[in-house]
Design goal:
alpha/beta, Chitobiase, domain 2, TIM Barrel, Alpha-d-glucuronidase, C-terminal Domain, 3 domains, six-stranded mixed sheet, globular, binds alpha-D-glucopyranuronic acid, hydrolase, Glyco_hydro_67_cat, A-glucoronidase_C_sf, Alpha-glucuronidase
Length: 645
């Protein structure tokens, strides 16, 4: 084996042509400028190079895959397409120095999921209630400011680079709630979208657009948006053709229809398959896809109506339509049946639509998980969802059933740290890596993120940071709503506790706590029947409190406070204990972070420290409100006599 050359003297050979190969070349040239070394284009002889990045158009690795190996003192990346070369380069970057030291036989890498998308809930105008970014906790939008395109295109390009490094290949640039200005991105403001697409394209990121189902009426002046009306169909075909003329690699449309007030096919007595297929046929000649969201439920429910269960809605609306959707229509399903709570069961839709392309939608933006003021690394939750097997151990995992892609609501804004809370970047990175390989071990991904974010960090830093992030989701769960019951948040902005905040509201998110017990009976025998939307074995597991996992007990059952969990504790004592533990864990995390001050840049350290102050305050608030509420409702004192108000 030849001795390896040290950093600063390495020589790289790049073979291949095309815009993404130029990107790869630009990246390596930049690195040589910073660290030293040399990059050469083309050349038939590999001898004398430390790294050879090669596009061999033999199709062996697909469009995005690559082979990586190291033999005889040379590291090689071979891809069949330009995108693969870019991902191969980032693989080398992830490996760092070891990519040039340890010999390894060639190994193949390909994404398990073809579409790995971030949906930005960014508004063009500042919305009077939701602001520039709906549920955004990282400052303003990277794309839009106060009614206009922001125009900071280099920043958008840097964002494309960040996404490619995480393995993400698609971005939807506007909110699923499409207001008047945003609607026009499809037509007279399309040029603004094309400018963004041009910046994202060199990093292999395709651009998608959220559109309003009412576009033929509000933009086209037609009297109807009926999906079966010929003039409507023609209008959409024309609109799609104009989009592709401006953005040849456009990804497609994202649609929130008949959901929380957005227009949809129900107005015309048509089904969601009719609506989705109409858009799919407009996109089909250009190779585009419609992402049709399954988040359809009655948001004007009467809280007195115990027969309606919001959790049932996606399955009830969509499962009967299985097999009716066009090939280029993807049904985008939230991972749980409600709305991105810290704990929900996996949506039963994933097991119920084998003849439909499904995408899993998760929420990287931490709407219900601390709004990027609290540390809550969601890797383990997403991994549980992706590994869940709707038909039991013998069946496929959700990650394998998601042929239509993995989608996260973005947690990125114009904040200098991208994500507001610097540690929330771990969610962005983890999402991208799990989308590439849903079966990946999230803890390994976390270690990767730590190593990349804090290069050459001493052990004390990595070992301090790791447990803070690893346990943060469960810690958050401990001090907020217990045992899968969900919500209990302040209405509207959803930050901080309000146990009865949504209890008498029209949104269908109730916990039904009374003096005797708490939880929602969703059993088939005595409740809403939601449990029966699952196949075996899950329908049986969830049907009975005896088999239902503790962490989901109150999602599926209404039980007395004295009910004994599998853990051996009563429900009420679990409520008290976990809230006290949750606060203690956050206090400990704050202490550990403070102890790392000498190892982290001062600004970054201060930003996180300040957020830990808020997290400690918030966790205590949650603890005290939830505990006091349940002490007052139940009259059962804490077995350990701790202060409850
Ligand atoms: C949640 C969220 C809304 C969002 C909606 C959606 O309800 O609070 O802001 O529009 O999800 O996913 O469409």
């Amino acid at each position: 084996m030849e001795a390896f050359r040290p950093l600063g003297e390495r020589r790289t050979l790049i073979r291949g042509s095309g815009p993404l190969v130029e990107t790869v070349h630009g990246e390596v040239a930049w690195a040589c400028g910073v660290f030293g070394g040399e990059v050469v284009r083309e050349g038939s002889d590999d001898a004398g190079y430390d790294l050879v990045l090669d596009v061999v158009a033999d199709g062996a690795w697909g469009d995005e895959g690559f082979a990586y190996g190291r033999e005889g003192g040379r590291t090689t990346v071979t891809a069949s397409g330009q995108r693969g070369l870019l991902y191969g380069l980032f693989h080398v970057v992830r490996l760092g120095g070891t990519a040039f030291q340890e010999d390894r036989p060639r190994e193949g890498h390909r994404p398990a999921v073809a579409l790995r998308m971030l949906d930005h809930w960014d508004n063009v105008d500042v919305h009077p209630v939701m602001g520039q970014v709906e549920r955004g906790y990282a400052g303003g939008s990277l794309f839009w400011r106060d009614g206009r395109a922001r125009g900071e295109l280099e920043r958008v390009r840097a964002y494309g680079r960040l996404l490619a490094a995480c393995g993400i290949n698609a971005v939807c640039v506007n909110n699923v709630n499409v207001h008047a200005s945003e609607a026009r991105l499809l037509t007279d403001r399309l040029g603004e979208v094309a400018d963004l697409a041009a910046m994202l394209r060199p990093y292999g990121v395709r651009t998608h657009l959220s559109v309003t189902f009412a576009a033929p009426v509000v933009l086209g002046g037609l009297p109807t948006a009926d999906p079966l009306d010929e003039a409507v169909r023609q209008w959409w075909s024309g609109a799609a053709a104009r989009v592709y003329a401006a953005i040849p690699d456009f990804g497609g449309f994202v649609v929130k229809a008949d959901s929380e007030g957005q227009p949809g096919p129900f107005t015309y007595g048509r089904s969601h398959a009719d609506g989705a297929n109409m858009l799919a046929s407009a996109l089909a000649p250009h190779g585009g896809t419609v992402h049709w969201r399954a988040f359809v439920y009655d948001h004007r429910q009467d809280w007195r109506d115990r027969s309606t269960d919001r959790a049932r809605a996606a399955y009830d609306h969509f499962a009967p339509l299985d097999g009716e959707f066009a090939d280029n229509a993807v049904l985008q399903v939230k991972h749980g049946p409600m709305d991105f709570q810290v704990r929900e069961p996996v949506s039963p839709v994933f097991g119920a639509m084998p003849r439909t392309r499904l995408a899993v939608e998760v929420q990287a933006t931490q709407e219900y998980t601390g709004q990027q003021r609290h540390v809550c690394w969601l890797g383990p939750m997403w991994s549980e969802v992706l590994r869940f097997r709707p038909a039991g151990e013998e069946g496929s995992a959700v990650g394998e059933l998601a042929g239509g892609g993995l989608v996260a609501v973005s947690n990125v804004g114009d904040d200098p740290y991208w994500t507001g809370h610097p540690l929330a970047q771990a969610n962005l990175y983890t999402f991208g890596r799990l989308a590439w390989q849903p079966s990946a071990d999230p803890l390994r991904v976390l270690d990767e993120w730590i190593a990349l974010t804090f290069p050459s960090a001493p052990k004390r830093l990595t070992e301090g940071l790791r447990p803070l992030l690893r346990g943060s989701w469960r810690t958050y769960e401990k001090y907020t709503a217990p045992l899968g019951v969900g919500f209990m948040v302040q209405p509207g902005h959803h930050y901080g506790p309000s146990v009865d905040g949504y209890e008498y509201s029209p949104w269908g998110t109730y916990h039904f706590a009374d003096r005797d017990g708490i939880g929602v009976d969703r059993s088939a025998a005595t409740g809403t029947g939601y449990a029966a939307q699952y196949a075996a074995p899950w329908a049986g597991v969830y049907e009975s409190p005896a088999t239902c996992p503790d962490e989901l007990l109150l999602f599926f059952h209404h039980v007395p406070y004295a009910h004994v969990l599998h853990s051996g504790k009563t429900v009420i004592q679990h409520v008290y204990d976990t809230r006290f533990e949750g606060v203690e864990e956050v206090e400990e995390a704050r202490r550990v972070w403070a102890s790392l001050a000498d190892l982290v840049g001062a600004e970054r350290h201060a930003r996180v420290a300040e957020r830990y102050e808020e997290q400690v305050r918030g966790a205590r608030e949650w603890r005290d409100q939830v505990n006091s509420y349940f002490l007052r409702k139940s009259g059962v004192p804490d077995a350990r006599g701790r202060p409850i108000w």
